[in-house]
Amino acid sequence: MGFAGVVTAIEPYRIAVPDDDVDDLRRRLRAARWPDDGGIGNWSQGVPVAYLRDLCTYWADGYDWRPREARFNRFDQVMATIDGLPIHVVHARSPHPTALPLLLTHGWPCTFVEFIDVIGPLVDPVAYGGDEADAFHVVCPTLPGCGFSAKPGPGCGVEAEARMWAGLMEGLGYDRYGVQGGDAGSLVSTRLAADQPDPVIGLHLNMVPLMMFRAIAAVRRSRRAAEDATAADERRALQRAEHYERWDSSYAKQQWTRPQTVGYGLTDSPIGQAAWILQCFWAWTDCNGNPDNALTRDQMLDEISVSWFTASAASSARFYWELITNSPPDFPTVTVPTGIAVFPEEIIPPVRAWCEQGYTDIRHWTEMPRGGHFAATEQPALFTDDLRAFFRPLR
Fold it and tell me: How many separate domains does the chain show?
């Protein structure tokens, strides 16, 4: 069988959430029980009650799922059965004959929706004022357990998902392609690039997992790690890692250890599901303390709604459990050409010297002027331009 997963079916697919599910969501939102705010009123203890009530009022009475669903369905989609598991895939073919296949992998708590604003410009750059020489055939699968993909059993970790993606690209007829990822997608994309250097012509990342893990490990070993760092970029990364460990990592620790437990409340309460995801939009975007400065409310509710309608809180959280139980302890070395986009409000901004220890052929490094962890959603133009620039000489 080799490295690649086995594809047994690829069938056309369209998203069609039943009306009863939409009505049920609105009923639950209108009947929600709310906690007190503890007299805080800001984000210091989590999502503020006033902010969430306002957003959920809009979710119930203003946000319209049907136009958003139609917006997703304007791109061709398939359900690909890989290693026995149905995987939802946006497969948007370019009209330009020299287009390069490009595999985009999202992170948590997102889905394919993370890339919805960049797919069009990547597929048909001419329609957006670009050059057809930069065109891509975009393949954007949803990770197992997330969104409209099926929910896997134990053992579906990073290595298994990389095999599935290799099988998917073979099944779609692509024997030469680029890969891109951030967050969880950076792990899967890195593994795929390391294990499949022949078909993968280049790897583009907006989060670098090896470097992030190194920074976190350093601050766990020493509380003085950031103070002792001599290089400015290392000090910045370690300061962010220290902040993440102290204030932003509680969600990860819960999902590493008890994803099933956290899933009950989030699957039963849309208020709970919204708060769980919103805290990430607040903490990890370039938003100056208010996620509305980085994302529209429709953008936030698109991701929250997909998670809600697919009841994927527990199954998506299990990615973290798999990461520490069924993923290889040694991170692979990547030898294919690598491009890294450094967005200033990334959770832990990359340090080039550290990245070069795991990615031996870094050919492209961009310090972005703005943007955070959800790069393709926050800054679609910067993200798209950087992808084009990195892959241009590799075609």
Answer: 1
